[in-house]
Structures are given as C-alpha cells and as structure tokens.
Amino acid sequence: MNKSYTLLPFRFGRFPGATVLVVNETGDFQFLPTELFDQLISYRLDHRSAEFLDLKGKHFVTDTEIEPVIELLATKYRTRKAFLTNFTALHIVVVTLRCNQKCNYCHASSQPQEAKRWDMNRETAINTTKMIMETPSPIVKIEFQGGEPLLNFDIVKLIIKTAKEINIKKQKDLSFVVCTNLTLITEEVLKYLRNEKVLISTSLDGPQKIHDLHRRMRDGSSSYEKFVKNLELSRKILAPEEISSLVTITRDSLGKMTEVVDEYIRQGFCSIFLRPINPYGYARLEHVQKLVDYPIEDFVDAYKKVLPYIIDLNLKGMRIEECFTSLLLTRILTPFSTGFVDLQSPSGAGISGAVYDYNGDVYPADEGRMLAKMGDRTFFMGNVNRDPYARVFNSNFLRDLISKSCLETLPGCHSCVFQAYCGSDPIRNYAIQGTMIGHRPTSGFCFMHKEIFKYLFEILRQDSPDYMDVFWSWITKRPLESIRMRPCANLKASRIT
Amino acid sequence: MNEIEIILSKRLYQKEAVIAATYMFTGEFRTKIEPEQTDKVKVTLKPIVKEKPVDPEQTLTRFMNEIIDQQLRLDLDKSYGKLRELIVRQAFFPVDLKEQGHGL
What we know:
The complex is a heterodimer.
Chain A: E1 6-7, E2 10-15, E3 19-24, E4 29-33, H1 34-41, H2 50-57, E5 61-62, H3 66-80, E6 90-94, E7 101-103, H4 122-133, E8 139-145, H5 153-170, E9 173-179, H6 187-196, E10 198-203, H7 208-214, E11 215-217, H8 224-237, E12 243-246, H9 251-254, H10 257-266, E13 271-272, H11 286-292, H12 296-315, E14 321-322, H13 323-333, E15 353-356, E16 361-363, H14 366-373, E17 382-383, H15 389-393, H16 396-403, H17 426-433, H18 444-462, H19 465-476, H20 480-484
Parallel strand pairs in A: 6-8, 6-15, 8-9, 9-10, 10-12, 13-14
Antiparallel strand pairs in A: 1-5, 2-3, 3-4, 7-11, 15-16, 16-17
Chain B: E1 4-9, H1 15-23, E2 29-36, E3 40-47, H2 56-91, H3 93-103
C-alpha cells in the first residue's frame, strides 16, 4: 500500500449517526463520518482535503518529518500528566470522628459528640504535620475533616501553627481548608480562619425539606436553619470565594435537582459539584442504602436533565458553574493538567492525596480509611507515630496500587476512546467489586463516566454557540459577558492547543 | 434464549481481539472461548440473568461490530504502537535522566 501519510496514535469510538470519534494521546479530538474514518485508516484520505489538514493540525496524521511531531506530542503528554510531577499535595487530616450531626449517608461513620476517645491527640497532630511537610510537593493543601473538625478545633489550630512553623524553612505553597457543617461556627472561629487564610468547605444538600431529610442534628432537629444562619455570619467575615459547598445527591433529591441548584443560587454559591452518593461508611449499610441509594443510571439521567437547566441559568445572567462538567471539559477542550484525585490515571490515591486518621493511621484515600473502619485494613499504609515518611509513601503496597490504576493497562479502559480524559479508582473497585483492577462491564463508575462523556461530546458535536460560551466561561473562570464580548467563532468546539 | 454461539476464523481475528470483544459482554453473559477445529474459535454467550430478554440477532450484531473494532485497534496499533511508546518515553525522558543522575 502506498502510504502518503503516517498515522499517529489515537483511540476511536463509534457515535450515533455513522460518526466516529477519534481522540489522540494528548486529548485532541475530531468527529469523522464513518466513510472518512475508513479512508483515514486505509491511507486513502486526500492529503489536500480540509479533513486531512484538520487531522494533521490535531496530530492524528503527519505527512512531514516525524521526529518534531513526536517531540511536540511528548511535550503535550507531559503537560497533561503534570499532576504526577509533584507527588502528594492534598493531605486530609481527620481530627476527630465526633460529629454533632448524624447524616444517614455519612462517609466518615461519625461518632457521638461526647465520645472524645475518637479525637486526634497533640502528639499525633504534630507527627501528622511533620509527615505532611516531608512531602516533596512544593504545594501542600491540608484539609481538615471529621466528624466535625470544629469539635476538636484546638488540634486544627495546632496543626496550622506547626505547619506554618515548619514552612518557614520549607517555603511550600501551603494552604488550609476546613470541612465543616457550619452549625458550630462562631464569630471567633471565623476571625481565626480569616486571619490564618483558612478556606471553608461545607455541605448543602438543597432546600430545607431535602437538606433536613438526611442531614439532621444528633438530637433529630433540623440542621438547615443553623446552617443558613451561620452561612450568613460566615459571609460577613470571609469573602464569598472562601466558602464553597458540596452536595450529596440522595434518592430524594434525584428528581429535584433543579430545586437543589436553585437553593445553591439562593444561598449565594457560584458553583455546584454534582456527584452521586459514595458507597462508603453508613451509606453502605443495607437499610441506609434502601433509603438513600439509587441505580447509577438514575443519576446519569438526572445529570442530563439538570445540566441544560444550569447552562440556561448562566445564559440568563446567573453565574453557577457545574464543577464536574467543568473539570471534564477542561480535559477535553484544553491541553492543561487537571489532577483530580478521584479521576486520574494513574489514580491519585497516595501519590496526589493521602488521609491521616485521628489515630495517625495513613491511607491513600478516605475510602481506604472507611474500609479499615469496617474491618478491612487492605489500604493501611502506616502510622505517623511509628513509621517514617519513606516507609509510608515509598512502599511496595503503594507502588502496586498505582500500577493497578493505569488506564492504559486496565481491561476495558485500554482501548476506550475516553481514556485521555478519564481515570481510575482502585479503592472503589476493591470496595464494590472485590478487586483493585475492577470489572468495567459491571462498573457503575465506568458506566457513569462513559455516559457523561458521550453526553458532553454530543453537546460539543452540536456546537451551540450559547452552550460553548457557558462552557468556556466555566473553563476559564471568567464571566460569561467577557467570553461573549470576544469574537467567539474561533472558540467553539475547537480546542486550545 | 439459552446461549449464542459465534464461530470466528483465527485468520481474521487475533486472540487479543477475541478476548477484548468477549470481555465487553461479561457483564451480561457468562462467556466461554474455546478452539474450534484448527483454524477457528468458538465464543459462547449465555445470559447471566435468565429472565432478562435477550435479542440474539442484536447481540450477535453487537458482538461482531465489537470484535471488528477490537481487531482494527490491534491492526492500527501495529502502525503506530511504537510511536505511542516513543511519545510516552520521550515525555518522561527528563525524569529518567534525573534518576540516572542520582545513581551516579
């Protein structure tokens, strides 16, 4: 066969309407009618055609010298994988398991408010901080979780103080986040957080009737009213961008996603992260599953219904970003690295994020800690009071875990057209399917991501200027007006390269 | 429907393509791959949930489309598999150099 061009590596998948999506190693994509795809792979594509030039520009083919193209693709590949360069940046510290709320779906399997034996002590807090600051990463984010971390606030303060002292020498880009239900927050605490530049991440499940269904105080009373009152107080002391919120979608909110989005806007949030309920902690108990869980297909349907609603709100002038969509679109439409511990290849478990339990036990992710809580210590990496950093983070166990999370080698993922944008979660695979490698044909995680990718690519294929403007405003974190003031024709479904 | 049997020519489909295609059906079917004569292979798909209706024609079409795509991926990989390795190796080349430097 006379080959007038060289094919460069890509993956492909078939779409409705006799269309093939091709995606290369660095995430560039192109839709091709089946006929053109056939011509492409059989070297019959006219290299003077517009399609050929498109494919050449996106590095699917080349008819010139190959070395510079390989060099360029390698540089782009390295950029996309830049999240691997720095090693562990996110450090989650569970300062207590105690909580003043008792949420049905709690990932953390919280303990009663008076049970102080579940608090992190001073020695463990100092050793945890020392271990965190040993990371080679120049960026360190310490996230305080619980239980409710404000119940052990002295330890939060101790860790912040110790980390800052160590950092005088280390000079890392150090930041802090406290994950709180806000019900215990006071003016004094808020002023401390403001002075120490600590961000707040909280939880809001929707309007009162939805929020209070599964997020109640331990005495059974409403948490919503306290939340709203304290959110208002927090906003008086902290800047709006210093407070973000996460939503947990339960069976009850699945059909009411627009109400949830409306509540986020009502409470002054500019973003929402739609995510299905995690199968850990109390959410794994059979009676709780019946109450809050749902088939993943239902979540995907709800997502597909609510995304156009969110986009429409943006077009009407209300800025609200759907962060999961934004993350995936950044991967699809830009060459930039977007490490996201829960969806990256290799997995971020241990190498991008780590969890330190109240007793100093270290896990690669919160899910590993939850499994240990339920008696399965497979993901236990070591203890800050007994083990040196190298033993915890340079173990054969962690190497094995990471090697089992590279999509290029996982059955079903190795040839998936969405591989460049997706990731794996070996701990979730283990928790749900019994093996770290998992089984894609029965994986809800795989199903959900594939369906959402297909849906987003269908939107990109339609290339609606309005939708694309909203997407670009999310990706670039700029106001929609500033996106629309520019001549947008060159920004549509094309990709920044 | 009890099961679907598919006979495939080894001259057209490599073992890797047969396994990869069959794997995609392991969520819905109990699968079996076995040699058939010297130049063929037999794939058997048996529904896991007996009560769930399965359209044999549709399943067969899905399987054949899947195996063609899997074989195509292998064929394409012969063209550019080495380039893929080269891109990844080149992308991490500075890291290799650094590691080698530490060893000196």
